[in-house]
Design brief:
This protein has 4 helices and 2 strands. The chain has 85 residues and is mostly helical. It has 2 domains: 37 residues; 39 residues, no CATH class. The chain has a two-stranded antiparallel ribbon with strand order 1-2. The N and C termini lie far apart (68 Å).
Length: 85
């Protein structure tokens, strides 16, 4: 195989990998969009304790520039409030 033929083959292989990656990216995006559209329904099915754990996890993952990462969770999140139940 000539140098040009070898390079051509490598380019085609790389293009194939990119096409597969693009397809996976689109599939994952579609699944994520579906989940996002159902989030209210799925959240509503959970018991209050599970909702509270989810909210605390989300709040801990937030970054507050003025306080740095992992801020102290407000005490209202720890109670069974209208937002959790």
């Amino acid at each position: 195989m000539t140098e040009t033929g070898y390079r051509h083959t490598r380019i085609l292989e790389r293009l194939g990998r990119h096409e597969k990656a693009d397809a996976r990216y689109i599939d994952e995006g579609a699944r994520l969009l579906n989940l996002a559209q159902r989030v209210t329904e799925l959240f509503g099915r959970q018991d209050p304790g599970e909702r509270q754990r989810l909210l605390v996890t989300i709040l801990r993952a937030l970054h507050y520039p003025e306080r740095g990462p992992d801020p102290e969770i407000p005490s209202t999140v720890g109670r069974d409030s209208e937002y959790v139940s």
